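P.,

For your records, the input lines for the assembly:
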Amino acid sequence: MAQRAVWLISHEPGTPLCGTVRFSRRYPTVEKRARVFNGASYVPIPEDGPFLKALLFELRLLDDDKDFVESRDSCSRINKTSIYGLLIGGEELWPVVAFLKNDIIYACVPLVEQTLSPRPPLISVSGVSQGFEFLFGIQDFLYSGQKNDSELNTKLSQLPDLLLQACPFGTLLDANLKNSLDNTNFASVTQPQKQPAWKTGTYKGKPQVSISITEKVKSMQYDKQGIADTWQVVGTVTCKCDLEGIMPNVTISLNLPTNGSPLQDILVHPCVTSLDSAILTSSSIDAMDDSAFSGPYKFPLTPPLESFNLCYYTSQVPVPPILGFYQLKEEEVQLRITINLKLHESVKNNFEFCEAHIPFYNRGPITHLEYKTSFGQLEVFREKSLLIWIIGQKFPKSMEISLSGTVTFGAKSHEKQPFDPICIGETAYLKGHPGHYTATWTTECAMSSEKLHFRILDYTLTGCYADQHSVQVFASGKPKISAYRKLISSDYYIWNSKAPAPVTYGSLLL
Amino acid sequence: MEYPAQLWPDVSAAEVAATSLLDTLVLLPPRPSALRRPLLLAATTALAAGGSLGPTSGASCRLLPLLLGLAAGSDLGRGFVPASEQRPLQATACECLRELESCKPGLLGGSLGLLRGLLGQEGPVQPLSLLLALALRNTLVLQSRVGAGLGGLLTDKVPPTGGGPWDWTLVEEGDGRLQPQAPSWPAAEEGEGERSLTAREHSPEEARELRAAVIQLLDTSYLLTPVAQAQLLWLLGWALRGLQGQPPALFKPQLVRLLGTAQLTLLHAVLALKAAFGEALFTAQDEALLLRRLTLAAQHPALPPPTHLFYLHCLLSFPENWPLGPEGEEAAPLLLGPQLCRGLLPSLLHDPMALLARLHLLCLLCAEDEEEEKGQLPSPRHYLEELLAGLRQRAALDEGPRALATVCFQASYLVTRCLAGQPTVLTPLIHGLAQLYRVRPMLASHFVDFLDQVDSELREPLKVVLRQEVVSRPGRDEALCWHLKMLAKVADGDAQSATLNFLQAAAAHCTNWDLQQGLLRVCRALLRAGVRGGLVDLLQVLARQLEDPDGRDHARLYYILLAHLAGPKLGVALGPSLAPPALASSLVAENQGFVAALMVQEAPALVRLSVGSHGVKGPLPVLKLQPEALEPIYSLELRFRVEGQLYAPLEAVHVPCLCPGRPARPLLLPLQPRCPAPARLDVHALYTTSTGLTCHAHLPPLFVNFADLFLPFPKPPGGAGLGFFEELWDSCLPEGAESRVWCPLGPQGLEGLVSHHLEPFVVVAQPPTSYYVAIHLPPNSKLLLRLEAALADGVPVALRTDDWAVLPLAGDYLRGLAAAL
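Structure tokens returned:
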């Protein structure tokens, strides 16, 4: 269950080493146990330098990708988890839990309480999940509210003290490092009895509960025979309960209107004390039928002090909010594009913003553009080979808008123009989401097509809501309840219907 | 503190460090200080990591009571701990004790009752719970090993023994062996047999107390942080496994709560419980629910990708109640049908790791799907094909990063591993790969690697299509170096003319050293494969035409090899070098290969020689040798050297072939003595092994005995008789020598002795009492024996010889006869 060492490494492509160790911590008592448990197969924790080099090589983050290197590129070296074996000085250090997020590589080595040859299955090593949780905890701490590099540096400098609280001997006590931050100011008060370990103090003040529901809608639209368009809603319910008492009991319920779409795949926060079996079993894996549980979804819980994600859910709404149609044809030297977008009548026609991104990959810069649009404005980013159609706050009365035109490209210059492994030839998309890609795990192959990007406040696609009656507090004083809702698009792709497009297995199930 | 080996190189240094840390702690003023906690942690680390923790260590004897006192929240006097700091220090002390218990299992065996009492009162829940659970687990394991029960350990607030709460005896019973807090599953299975032998049933009272303690721990477990809850479950689950009177149903109330969460550690801990208790805790329905939650978590959009991958791994290693497949192999659980997997199938939009993990699942589905009837839409196999085609398309992109190609080949490899023997999958794969090569030959390195890794089932047909792909096009574009690299891998005896044509066309374009070497490598591969005809011409042309002198030399060398060596020998000469190359240069490696194959190797003797029976008549003594081979050897040449030049130089003996188990004809080695004396022959063997190597071996020496030189006298025209003998007898003197020797006789008497040893040389015989023997010793000596008037135990022998140097040899010979029988 313990960790032998933990590292934070910033990935700096283009520099000689391609990275720097920003933080590392070794646990000597755990290391001593590792030496005994692993016996002849024991491999000591390396110094930072060799570790950095080996890890970057294994994660393919070194710049020298040019040549075939068998120890990295051989077809039989298949890694299917974020857990690696690193070759350092002729010995293999395993298991190394590592992942890259926001240009920081998080890594740790869990203790395996037995010999390493033969390797035990990962599932049976308790330290692996503890290691992941440890790294996620550090990641949450570094990136919650962090806006710039100096803030990151401040937080990194706080880490040694925090880990002395949260993980003094290599066995993690609390993945929520902010709790430890509060804990270090121990001079506060003598804490009462039976205080939960995840709640470091008590709230004093006016009772209030805030619930905010954020739904993201993803979609893949093909407009093709034999391939079904897909879309999915992913909801996150975030709560902050400012209530007096050590362990106030609260029940929060989420409701659906009569025509709402049932919530599925519900994952709850560990502070939820019990769960209805209907909530536990409602899942997107099963075929939908009318008997699906449609709420109210009740979550009895003892809230922590800070804001927390009460639950995540998915839902299958009957229609996508915006139905798109995108055609792209190559005509000699130019591309002819036609786009139609239609807002579904049931969707609230009041956007915070709405735009469509039309990128052109694997081509030169845009040299010439002729277009006609029924609504909104078009922005052209010539060097990036990108068009952005700004639709604005409202669709027109007809709920339908269109754009058509021809685009001509210059010669393709190397490296500058965006490369995409999927959008080859006429394969292209339109998307309703800004072109930045979160989560660059390993070598992310950026997608391309039209992508839609929009946000609607005070609205959810499923209809899911919380109101004054949604919160029951078994404590003195009636809290003030505030509830928020919003819908945003995420990975909302509309593929060129005139060319092949990547499909998921689900799209083939008609 | 992170480098204890440097800080405290030995035990005493650690002891000193811990002592001074404790001294500092006592000196702190009685007001809140941020130093107390780090000092406690540091002292604990020094003792545990420095190795000085033990009953004889002074610092241990100070630290342990201090920690336990702090943990118990008792008053340590003199305002040692300010009230405001008491609670945080109580938690810290628990953590320190937990670490010490981890490093010395059993240490806190005597404090179980105390800890339990504290947990029931106002103590901080999480540190105490974890400490109690760990101490309880270690005590259970150690006690069961020695066959003892828990006794009153769980209820006694005051430790039973007088030595304080420290149970060093229990620590010693564990031989200082560490206890895995959460043993890996297979290891735990193995340990089970051992444990069930020694496990002792707890008395009903002990069992009740134990159950009460576990319930107490579980009931308050929701107060722990999720990671700590998971630790508690791992500890308790494996502690209670197999214990009588401890139903795993104790864990049930926690499960529903745990299954609902998204926490990786909690779901992992549930899986550990599943592995520990199987059907006793999870019915088939529970198992199905757990699988569904796991499936859901493995694809839930709200969870980060590393979590998805770990859950996918858990799915494929799922601890089933009734596993069907072999243990330790990844497989889709039985209850995970195609319906459940639907959302877990790969698409081109996934990142490489997710793609490969999901592809594995898809392959497993396809493997199961084999028998099912067609017509099911969309069939997983069809989807797999589309996916692989998509991957190849990406790999074929001109500017694509190498990672795209790597993923494509990894996926192809995974498919061939999982779906070997399914032509419906492999055939399109082969053609797809050939097409990929056509579009992007610069992936040749990947192809070569792929061919090295896959089974021959796929390798051979793939080689054929790739060769066609290369040779069917004119070899003059910029991809020539890749084509040559590819061809060096796939060229063999088939389609010779096409290959040679390609090479001939390519030769004109091989203008730099790299290309020429590539070309020569293909020639070498062809040489190995036994291609001769057109290759001779090509090599001749290359030896003349290549610009680079090194290239010309190589071509000439290959040409000479081809012209002079027989097929099998050539194969060996060009095969992989036997000796590891001293330099990474290909030339050196290649030369070493030649050296190994073309030079004579020193080797242990694979052939044995023994001297056969005597009895050949002729003008010269002949040694009869019986060869015997340990392995098949060919073209054996045996060379002999006489030590001391007693005989004329011996001719070598040749044997075409020797096989073990097949009797070989005896070899006749004629000797030409220069003087009649025994000699030692030095023997060397030179032979070819079945692998074509020529070996040289030194054999053990052979001995030529005195008797091996005996020859009968040629019969005189008047017939041999007494007169002939007397004539010889008289001729010996006066130059020669005369002697009388006593020759002992064995039980068979004189007759037996003569017939056995001297039969061919007898001139006059009057059995059983008198024999006259005349022996010719080449080059020109004689030895005459009169054996007369034998007694029961011996016979007096009168002997004459014309060469007095023979006399001692004859004496030794006669005296040795009886023993030799």
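Two observations worth noting. The longest strand of chain A covers residues 480-495. Chain A touches chain B through 117 residues (CB under 8 Å).

Regards
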